[in-house]
Design brief:
about 270 residues, alpha+beta, OB fold (Dihydrolipoamide Acetyltransferase, E2P), 5 helices, about 25% helix, globular
Amino acid sequence: MERAKIQELFEDNFLEEEKEILVLMATSTNGAAAYYDMWAPSNDPLAYVDLSDNSLHTGSIRLEWLVEGKGWRYYFNPQTAYRIRVRPRKPDYMPNFEHCFMLLEVLEENVADKRFEEILTEYNREVSYDDGDFHLILDKEYKWFEGAILHGDEEIEFFIETEELDRLKNILAAYKKATEDFEKWLDTLKQFAAQKLTKLANEWQEEDTASISEKDFAERISLSSINLTEEKGFIVYLYDDDMFFDHIICVYGNLDGTLEDADIEG
């Protein structure tokens, strides 16, 4: 599809109205989503001020724009305010965000607004959780709690994809129940991964390499990290022992005991 047509399709998600707003950035721009043959970088500011009425808006905000290559054009400095020109989204576009804009131009950097100072103070306040079994700290950039668990002699990275402490407690309660016998739970995941991926592992092997059985597969893989989702699902990451040339094995399931899939990434 021609670039002009892609640009037209993207811009059609937004109103014709243009406005100036002040935005308070939390982070730089770290990535983009594919949009046909182009890329749509995005950034989720902490807050913005609508300069037409000086109203302050916080949370659930997204800026998007379109670029041809993987240079995102606008990177921004973390925890910095900018004056920008934007077009608001149409009502049916990006319903997961309360406020969404197409970025047209950055007009000014290091803009001051006293209301932003209070927001940054709160943003930089550490949020942690400790129940004796887990010590977790909220990473506000990635919007998850993170910590580690001890498995044998190794510390295993542990993530919970929520920002809410009450939700965190509910997810942890479900996790503790599911893993009362942790080794049995982990063995079940390894056996599931072996059933799903042993055939593929053999296809990856070089000629004259001994065939891998499901038993071999399950015994060779080892725990890398655990990621719990807000819906009480999980992704458990397992080291592949070089069966997939250092790709990571992912097992997807739910804390109610159901297992969904296993695949490789990386």
